[in-house]
Write a structure and sequence with these properties.
alpha/beta; six-stranded mixed sheet; globular
């Protein structure tokens, strides 16, 4: 079954249909049309899977996909035009060209937290790059995955095929040879996929995660910080890889910050003391139990209530790096708050940890901002905001070190899903220096070249 699917895709790729830019554009426009046609079905599927409302689906998943397709359709032709480069005097007369060509058969494995966005966004890049694709969506969001499969069944399965199955089936899939693998998910699974791919020397893009800190300095505009941190943390009930994992707040404003943040949460997420019915559920019992076990009731200053698969926005204070909640990525609506005295000392601490996928800083001092940007290694981030660095098509998204490998979105996706081939086109004339015999005059000639 798996071998048959892969073989069919290899045969389709060898027809050279995907090398045609117009074929790719038509496929992307068709995908856009299908997404819009199935929008209401997707809204219903998100509600069934984990109570994600239609507004959040549009703003956190749909808009990005439509913008990405529009970007690709607009810029593809120019990007894939062969680029002329100089080849140096040693190759005179000659021409140099750089050509972006597709890898071939691509495997995309997507997660459950943004099941539409993180399935279709890399798919857009793979299509634009001229590849065939096998997409393995998450089984934890079966309703959304069903609609994704329904949408993509409108394409020739030699071009795009949705592969469904349990962990064992996925392992079987990974035992096969692909030309490129794109994975979004946990660090542990990412390591396993990387190991599997290494047997075939298959290039891999890993979009992982980590404990993304949010620093609130003493000169921060707190009204802005309350609003943007609460939104970024509790979007999708905290089940966002780039959500602020924890807040590092300057000790001089700790009490004021906590008080203001609680007020903001009550205003945005509660009505008459009751949590809004639109707040998303935790995806499954396993994740729910894991998060509940991280709640230290003695340190909770707001929230902490939980039932069924719902956990309220929860603020936990007096947290240290030794607490259990700081030993793993939270990935839920629990917000630990730590304090710091000196921002430079905090920068040193962060750099001694695994590099986070994102980092956020709230403050006004330009020198400190430059230090946060340039002296800490992290995938990407924002100054005086959270999460929004993902939205511009011209900003790539990806991790570094433990948080990921390579980036995508916009032009980065076009580069990611293609191989950059270098071509030298030589004329008849040439300098014969490179050929035997190696005379003294030839040696003097080449010696002059290295002494320039």
């Amino acid at each position: 079954m798996v071998k048959d699917i892969i073989q069919k895709q290899r045969e389709f790729f060898l027809t050279n249909k995907t090398l045609d830019i117009n074929f790719r554009k038509e496929a992307l426009l068709k995908l856009k049309k299908l997404l819009l046609e199935h929008k209401e079905e997707l809204f219903d599927a998100f509600l069934k899977d984990f109570n994600k409302n239609s507004f959040d689906v549009i703003t956190s998943e749909f808009i990005s996909l439509i913008n990405e397709i529009n970007f690709m359709v607009k810029h593809m032709k120019k990007f894939f035009k062969p680029k002329r480069v100089s080849t140096g005097i040693i190759n005179f007369p000659s021409k140099g060209k750089i050509i972006h060509e597709p890898y071939g058969n691509v495997l995309i494995i997507s997660p459950w937290n943004y099941p539409l966005l993180l399935s279709i966004d890399p798919l857009i890049g793979a299509i634009a790059g001229g590849n065939t694709v096998i997409l393995r969506p998450s089984e934890s969001t079966k309703n959304v995955s069903n609609i994704i499969e329904k949408i993509l069944s409108n394409f020739d399965e030699g071009f795009i095929k949705v592969f469904r199955g349990d962990r064992e089936k996925t392992q079987e899939l990974l035992d096969e040879k692909f030309d490129f693998i794109f994975f979004t998910g946990s660090v542990n699974v990412g390591k396993m996929i990387y190991e599997k791919a290494s047997k075939h020397l298959t290039p891999v893009c890993l979009e992982l995660g980590g404990k993304s800190p949010c620093i609130v300095d003493k000169d921060a505009d707190l009204k802005i910080a309350y609003k943007r941190i609460a939104w970024g943390k509790f979007l999708n009930a905290g089940q966002t890889c780039v959500a602020p994992d924890h807040v590092l707040v300057h000790e001089s404003i700790k009490d004021e910050f906590i008080k203001g943040l609680i007020k903001e949460i009550k205003y945005r997420y509660y009505k008459e003391g009751k949590l809004t019915s639109e707040f998303p559920f935790i995806i499954n019992k396993k994740q729910f139990d894991r998060l509940v076990n991280l709640i230290d009731k003695d340190k909770v200053v707001f929230g902490g209530n939980h039932h069924d698969l719902l956990i309220e926005p929860t603020i936990i204070t007096d947290v240290t790096y030794d607490d259990p909640i700081m030993k793993e990525e939270i990935f839920g609506p629990l917000l630990p708050i730590l304090t710091f005295k000196d921002i430079n000392e905090e920068i040193e601490k962060i750099n001694k940890m695994e590099h986070p996928l994102a980092l956020y800083y709230f403050g006004k001092n330009k020198e400190v901002i430059n230090n946060v940007i340039n002296k800490i290694r992290y995938g990407g981030g924002c100054i005086n905001d959270t999460i929004m660095h993902l939205t511009p098509e011209k900003l790539g998204f990806g991790g570094v070190g433990q948080s990921g490998l390579y980036s995508y979105h916009g032009f980065n996706s076009l580069r990611l899903f293609t191989h950059e081939k270098s071509i030298l086109i030589k004329g008849k004339l040439e300098v014969n220096t490179k050929y035997l015999p190696h005379t003294k005059s030839k040696f003097k000639f080449v010696e002059k070249m290295i002494n320039k």
